[in-house]
Amino acid sequence: MQQVPQTAVKKRGGRPNNRARLLSVAGELFMKSGFRDVSVDKISETADVTKQTVYYHFANKEQLVVEVLEERIDSVEASLAAAINARQSPRDRLKAIFDWHTDWFNQPDFSGCLFLRAASEYKGEQRDIAELTEVQKLGLRRAIKALLEAAGVSSARSENIARAFLCLLDGAVVSAQILGEKDAADNAWRSAETILDAESTATQANSSTT
């Protein structure tokens, strides 16, 4: 479900919105084929616009990549927030993140994480792109941290556990993509629950001795 919703491609008066179409088409191509292997020519051809039109809206391919990633961050955050807010109990709200990943893995067009792909392909060569991959991961980690604290994990421990949960999720993405394990996020949640149970036991033990 880490998909950008179909972008509207009409302006007032029914004229095509080439910028929106280019962002939508480029995002789909990047997901399928990666960033390096998708040329501006391929993007313009698939979007059925001229190459000059691409450069009218975007200074270069890197700017197009940046804007695709920015849109993807907004889309993913909104989708995750909806999934989390549909749950009631603190632990269920945490589980919603893992369930969201399971739903995503089972989409027919699932092809991995666009942010992990961007980080791998650009490897810090484009600072704007690197910053966006960091923004996405740190944003998810902060959300997990807040949910952990709402579930009773102390602020002294929540950062380290949030890091562990993010590692579980990223590992699940890799397992789903490379090994075809569509239940990888379900398995990751079972590991996360073990961590939560151990943390709860330790907290109770500490409380009983003070």
Assembly context of the chains? single chain
Rg to the nearest angstrom? 20 Å
Q: Which class do the helix and strand fractions yield?
A: mainly alpha
CATH architecture of the domain at 62-205: Orthogonal Bundle
CATH class of the domain at 62-205: Mainly Alpha
* Helix content class: over 70%
> How many beta-strand elements?
0
Average pLDDT score: 89
CATH topology of the domain at 62-205: Tetracycline Repressor, domain 2
Silhouette: elongated
| CATH homolog superfamily of the domain at 62-205 | Tetracycline Repressor, domain 2
- Euclidean distance between termini CA atoms: 46 Å
Uncertain runs are 1-15
In terms of DSSP E residues, the strand content is: under 5%
H/I helix tally: 9
Order of helices and strands: HHHHHHHHH
Could you describe the largest sheet, including whether it forms a barrel? none
